Amino acid sequence: MAKRDYYDVLGVAKGAELDAIKKAYRSLAVKYHPDRNPGDSAAEEKFKEATEAYDVLSDQKKRQAYDQFGFAGVDGISGGGAQDFSHVFRDFEDIFGDFGGIFDSLFGGRRGGGRRQGGLRGDDLRYDLEIPFADAVYGTEAEISFARQEACKTCKGTGAEGGAARKLCPTCGGSGQVRRSSGFFSVTNTCPECQGAGDIIDNPCHSCHGSGRERRNKRLKVTIPAGIEPGKRIQIPGQGDGGASGGPAGDLYVYIHVAAHSDYERHGNDLYCVIPVGVGQASLGAEIVVPTLDGKRVKVKVPAGTQSGKLLRLRNEGVPYLSNNGRRGDLYIKVQVTTPTKLSSRAKSVLQEFADLVGEEASPKPVPLSELE
User: Fold this and answer.
1) Alpha carbon distance 322, 228 (integer Å)
2) What pLDDT does 74 receive?
3) pTM above 0.85, yes or no
4) Are the beta carbons of 278 and 250 closer than 8 angstroms?
5) How many other CB atoms are found less than 10 A from the CB of residue 119?
């Protein structure tokens, strides 16, 4: 099959800068690397094709010859032409180094050498906690109970019977990884002998079977800050599972769920409630006493002519701001004008007189929806 133009292979323009060429090759190399596509010969060919194109276009001398004479121009350059990938190896860290370990995540290895120190970090844990509505607004302290992996008491976390010391893994020399050659790259994988710990145990502990950890229940008090929103999480460092082989513990994440309230709703840092107001109070105006979420009773002025659905605002009676508890939102009171259902004959007479005086419409027109609050 005829070769494709190197610029087409990488998907870059003929005048592309070196950074664009590196970026294009990096993307194709990760996509078609043989370790990511085991047994896929088509992917392997695409990987080789991209590497060959990068080898030529990233080298100034080869690229100049290719631009002038095509494939014939790069035959024999650098002692092997387009198949001499020596400088691709040298460019490896430059091309992939800024990926922050992308090959580690793909192939299970890690960079660097030397003996692994401190064992493996423990897993993070999640705890879902539901709290009352008012506790989310004003804050509280809650006690939770959960199970976590902790250092085995019998072997004191070593995993070896009697607390004996662990031995250096002979397969990886304590690094926790083994290196192998894969295609054009050298790839590290987790050591199959020690599973990445770097150490092995001759005589495993009878209690924890060599893991160095055992499951125990833990009770912990968690401070819930005032103003926390549903779905937020609180991170508690070091309260997750203990690490293997003496490694550090993971973290505990407490996810907050808030129970609904029968009378109040929260929108951001504002609270909303509905308060019934009589026809006379709404028509003539009145001063009513309204309960707040924290149990206070505050006076609220209802203006004369207040309509059902009108919002009255009480400043600084809402939810404290999480970042500044000295600042609070507002409490909005939605007025619901109530109509009496049981009337005495005297009340009926007075209301009829009132209706006649104000001239209530017998054939009212629809209210424009745009006027509704």
Assistant:
1) 6
2) 81
3) no
4) no
5) 23
